[in-house]
Amino acid sequence: MSAPPVLRVSNLTKRFHGVTALDKVYLDVHAGQIVALIGPSGCGKSTLLRCLTWLEQPDDGFIEVAGKPLGRELMPGGVVRRQNRRQIDALRPQVGIVFQQFHLWPHMTALENVVRPQTVVLGRPRDEATRRGIELLTRLGLADRMDRHPHALSGGQKQRVAIARALAMDPALMLFDEPTSALDPELVGEVLAVLRALAGTGMTMLVVTHEIGFAASLADRIAFMDHGRILEEGPARDIMAAPKEPRLRNFLDLVRADHRIVTTTVTPTE
Amino acid sequence: MGFKLNYLLSILPRLIGAAAVNIRLAVIIMLFALALGTALTIVRSLKIVAVNACIAVVISFVRGTPLLIQIFIAYYVLPAVGLDLSPEVAGVSAIAFNSMVFVSESMRGGLATIDAGQIEASTALGLPPHAIWLKVVLPQLFRRIVPVLINEATIVVKGTALLSVITVVDVLRTAQQIASASYRPFETMIGSALVFLVINLVISLSGRVAESRFAAARV
């Protein structure tokens, strides 16, 4: 048996006031993989990401990060034990998340945004944290933006600061919530380049997106979600070329048709 | 009885000397008000229904009754329940308690303007709740309510004049003593008013400097 997956989600269920947002979700993400999670809006993609950082507490099921249970663990004899905040916080740095709106701290410079969580959460000495912050921001092309506050950064730059902030915690897994949606369309290529570079370092990633092209060009595997369930999951090429699930086929047809409309309106002469 | 500028100038040194008392008390009161107001805000944010109901009663009492009565309660009523406070301690307690409520109310208003996403991001990074308050929420909150705090500080400075009625020898009481000896209330009252005006102008100006600095950082 090989090493445990970096992320193992089993039987994860979440209900909001009787509405099932996640319905017995199973998902494994192995080291170095990039998994794109696609699906129509409201299908539960974002809820799943929020559960994976315990911002949302699932009603049932288990999450394992690098072999360690997060939030709730199964004890011998079938007893389920809930972890306390301290135990959950200890595991949270292992799961880096980059939010759609980035959520940087506006009262700190870009560098301070990256340094502060290292000193506060990991207890790193300030020099070491600063060195790590400078290294990450430089790698992400922000060497000349480190002393700026978030309001003085563009959307793409803010996103890269948010990525650096999460990476500085040395996570086992990075989660991205719709990384292209809050940015101008011409920046999509840039985001793709950043995520590809990240993949080059062997980072394991789970990327929620509704952009099929983006998912297809980035991911090793694609998981399709609808009505809170993962309906189909497999190698990206297979999913794109030969989707088995009718709802996935429908979804792909829809977004592809949509894409054609966009293309024809942009270049009406062709 | 006319106004004599020379007499005003001659009593100013005594009034300015007495202003040290008002300034000292105002500083102590503001420090307590900030610390207690912050603590009260954090307690209220826990949203414990019974606790918040009690706090709401206290707040409506503080807001709905005159500060002077609150000072009298601290000085004349508390001894009846075994708390015999000196005039200064009673006065500082009453005004600090009053000011705490206003600080907490403005902090609560500021809290609503801090984007919840930032707090979620902090939580997801593994920051414990106390670190989220100290490193993320409070620094932003204080910068946002600087104008309100400056206003509150001027109110507190003026409030210290009320302590003259419970025998604290401050600017106003000094002025009254001078006036009753010289029968010249005109200059003495103008003089004490000028002393308060100068203190509050200094506070307002330094507040404006702080505001423009925070505005430059746009937080």
Automatic annotation (TrEMBL), chain A:
InterPro entries documented for this protein: AAA+_ATPase, ABC_ATPase_HisP-typ, ABC_transporter-like_ATP-bd, ABC_transporter-like_CS, MetN_ABC_transporter-like, P-loop_NTPase
Source organism superkingdom: Bacteria
Q: Where in the cell is it found?
A: Cell membrane
One Pfam annotation reads: ABC_tran
Membrane topology label: Peripheral membrane protein
Hey, which family's this protein in? Belongs to the ABC transporter superfamily.
Query: What's the protein name?
Result: Amino acid ABC transporter ATP-binding protein
UniProtKB/TrEMBL annotation, chain B:
Write down the InterPro entries for this protein, in alphabetical order: AA_ABC_transptr_permease_3TM (IPR010065), ArtM/GltK/GlnP/TcyL/YhdX-like (IPR043429), MetI-like (IPR000515), MetI-like_sf (IPR035906)
What the entry lists under PANTHER family is as follows: L-CYSTINE TRANSPORT SYSTEM PERMEASE PROTEIN TCYL (PTHR30614:SF0), MEMBRANE COMPONENT OF AMINO ACID ABC TRANSPORTER (PTHR30614)
Name the UniProt key words of this record, in alphabetical order.
Answer: Amino-acid transport, Cell membrane, Membrane, Transmembrane, Transmembrane helix, Transport
Q: Where is the ABC transmembrane type-1 domain?
A: 19-207
MF terms per GO, please? transmembrane transporter activity
Family membership noted in the UniProt record: Belongs to the binding-protein-dependent transport system permease family. HisMQ subfamily.
Q: Which PROSITE patterns match?
A: ABC_TM1
Name the source organism: Bradyrhizobium rifense
The membrane topology of this protein is: Multi-pass membrane protein
Record-level GO cellular component terms: ATP-binding cassette (ABC) transporter complex
Say if the entry is tagged with keyword DNA-binding: no
> What is the protein name stated in its UniProt record?
Amino acid ABC transporter permease
Q: Which residues cross the membrane?
A: 15-36, 48-78, 189-210
* GO terms under biological process: amino acid transport
Q: Which domain of life is it from?
A: Bacteria
The subcellular localization recorded is: Cell inner membrane; Cell membrane
